[in-house]
Amino acid sequence: MNKNRITLWTLGLTVCGLCACSEVAITGRSQLNFMPDSMMSSMSLQHYQTFLKENKTSTDAQQTERVKRVGRRIAQAITKYCRMKDIQSELRGYHWEFNLVDSNDINAWAMPGGKVVVYTGLLAVAQTEADLAVVIGHEVAHVFAKHGAERMSYNYTAQLGGMALAKAIEEKSEATQKLFLGAFGLGAQVGVMLPFSRLHESEADRLGLIFMAMAKYNPEVSIPFWQRMARTKDGKGQPPEFLSTHPSDERRISRLRRYMDEARDYYRQALRDG
Ligand SMILES: [Zn+2]
Questions:
Q1: Catalytic residue among 90, 139, 150, 241
Q2: What's the pTM?
Q3: How far apart, in Å, are the Cα atoms of 166 and each of 153, 156, 173, 180?
C-alpha cells in the first residue's frame, strides 16, 4: 500500500469513526458517506434543471408516458419495500421525476432526490417496458444506495488530503462541484470516466432486480437486455456511452444469475399481491 493510499484510508477511517458511516439499506453494507442528503439533492436539482434547459424533452407523448409509467411503478416498489422492511426514513427527500430526453445517445441516469433521465437513443435497446424497468431499476438503485455520495466522500478524502473537510464541503465550492460532476459521470471536464466500482455495480444490480420485480416486471428479462446492450453500437459504430460506466460482460451476467432466485421470489410475491 503506498503512502497516499494509507493517508486516504486513515483519513477515511477517521472521518468514518467521527460521524460518517452509514449503512446501505437491503445489503447492510456500511459505507463512508459524509455528504448531507439535503445538499446532494439540492445540487442534483440544480444540475437537473440546467440539463433540462439545455436539452429537449421528447415530443413523443406515448414513449414519454411509458418511461414515466415504468418510473412510477419502480418508485412505488421502493416505497413498498421500505414499508415492508420498516425503513421508511430511507424515503425522505425523494421527489421522483422521470423524463425522456431527445438524444441519440444510448444512455440513462438518475440523481439523488429522484431525478431520472432516459435518452430516446436508449429506446432502440430497451424496447419493452420490462427492459426500461431493468435500466431505471438499476439507476435508481444507485441513488437509493447513495453511491454518488459515497464516491464523493472517498474522492474528497483522496483529493483534498489533510485539508479541513468541513470547510471544503460546501455546496457552492468549486471542489464540491467538480467532485459532484465526477461522481455522477457528468461533464467532460472530469476526463475519462472510469466504470463505477464493481461493488456499486453489483449492489445496483441486486437492488435493481428486486425493485423491478416488486414493480411486477419479470426480472429474467435483465439478462437478455444486458447481453443485447453489450452487442449494441451507436450511430458512430462505438459502444454506447452507457457501457462506459456499466460494462456488460460475463461478470455482470453471472452476477445477475446469482441474484435471480431472490428476485424471482419478490416477483412471485408481487404477482400474488395483485
Ligand atoms: Zn450501474
A1: 139
A2: 0.84
A3: 12, 11, 12, 16
Output the CA 163–ligand 1 centroid distance in Å. Answer: 31
Answer yes or no: is pLDDT of 115 > 70.
Answer: yes
Q: Sign of dihedral through CA atoms 174, 180, 185, 186?
A: negative
> Catalytic residue at 139?
yes
Q: Collect all residues with Cβ–Cβ distance below 8 Å to 133 and sequence separation of at least 6.
A: 70, 73, 74, 212, 215, 217
User: Residues 250-259: what's their mean pLDDT?
Assistant: 94
CA of 37 to the centre of ligand 1 (A): 20
Min mean pLDDT across 12-21, 22-31, 117-126 is at 12-21
pLDDT attached to residue 40: 85
Dihedral of alpha carbons 93, 98, 103, 105, sign:
positive
Q: Which three three-digit cell numbers place residue 32?
A: 463512508
Q: How confident is the model at residue 227 (pLDDT cuts 50, 70, 90)?
A: very high
Cell numbers at residue 251, please?
A: 461478470
